[in-house]
Amino acid sequence: MIDSSSAQNLELVINNRDSRNGHTLFGVLNYTKTPGGSRRLRSNILEPLVDAETINTRLDCVQELLQDEELFFGLQAVISKFLDTEQLLSILVQIPKQDTITKMKNTYSFTSADLIKMNERCQESLREIYHMTYLIVCKLLNEIYEHIHCLYKLSDIVSMLDMLLSFAHACTLSDYVRPEFTDTLAIKQGWHPILEKIAMEKPVSNNTYLSEGNNFVIITGPNMSGKSTYLKQIALCQIMAQIGSYVPAEYCSFRIAEQIFTRIGMDDDIETNASTFMKEMKEITYIIQNANDKSLIIIDELGRGTSAEEGIGICYAACEYLLNLKAFTLFATHFLELCHIDALYPNVENYHFEVQHVRSSAGNKEKIAYTYTLSKGYTEEKNYGNGFHYDFNLVKIV
């Protein structure tokens, strides 16, 4: 299950900046040739599978398509010739209407007695034609209804095959790998699939590891160091694996997630009269009330909408509650006080994104150089917000 807020945060089918561009997970994987295949892919992304056997069957199909070029290109050429069977089915199940209703604007008409007689004869003949047509169509539909299950099955097969061909096509454009399903979440050198599509090159890759004994990861690092991108990357890879697609990584293993929750972003909501803090509280409450041991939880900088003291308290309370679950949780924060929670809970790990300090050519100031590399432990950077003064020439403006 993926809630609407998580689907929006992860940009699964709609880009948050421009809904018309294809910088979404759907855009990354959509090489379908039929409308039914496109609809099938969209519904699968929003509602991934939770049965490992079904997922592995799909992965076997994708693997066979990748290994047999003749089969792959042959099916691609044929699949595009199929009509939209689902649209045809929607027409067939409609009940035909015998009476034809027409509407005309106000007009002046001139006629004679002979024209009236001829018009009546024409109308009578037309009614007979309509009646005969109605009987023929009803007979045809009755014959089709006996075999309509075949059309439904054909529609399902074509859309599924089209989606699997799309997965195989996406693999040929990047170095994706087949995922495994175990009790751990392990990704070796994984990268963000949407970022790769935007940049037209492979982004910086990082490792990820969560298990039952190490199911809670706290991530720290300066602003713009890559925390949010990394969190989204993990959720996107999980979804790709559970719909039967290959994953952007050198190696990956996933635990089946029954639910995927995210708390990302810092926006208010005018329509619901919710401030930033109110929206944060609603989202974290929803996660706490619905998460279970098989959930994947992504939380990015909870508590930004209030004071530092209150934010730390809320984060600490949320962490303690989630730590009692066996859910896989990744928690990004600027509150370094949370990093010491690993002394109380052995299933907590600290990671941070490294940065380097580079002195300018003039030698009078330092700039932050981002490596976008995840390392063990929590960050030792402090007051890193001041470094942005120079990056954005704020000092000169002020």
From TrEMBL:
CDD domains: ABC_MutS_homologs. The keyword Oxidoreductase does not apply. PROSITE patterns: DNA_MISMATCH_REPAIR_2. The keyword Metal-binding does not apply. SMART domains: MUTSac, MUTSd. One of its GO terms (molecular function) is DNA binding. Residues 295-311 form the DNA mismatch repair proteins mutS family domain. InterPro entries: DNA_mismatch_repair_MutS_C, DNA_mismatch_repair_MutS_core, DNA_mismatch_repair_MutS_sf, MutS, P-loop_NTPase. Keywords: ATP-binding, DNA-binding, Meiosis, Nucleotide-binding. This is MutS protein 4.
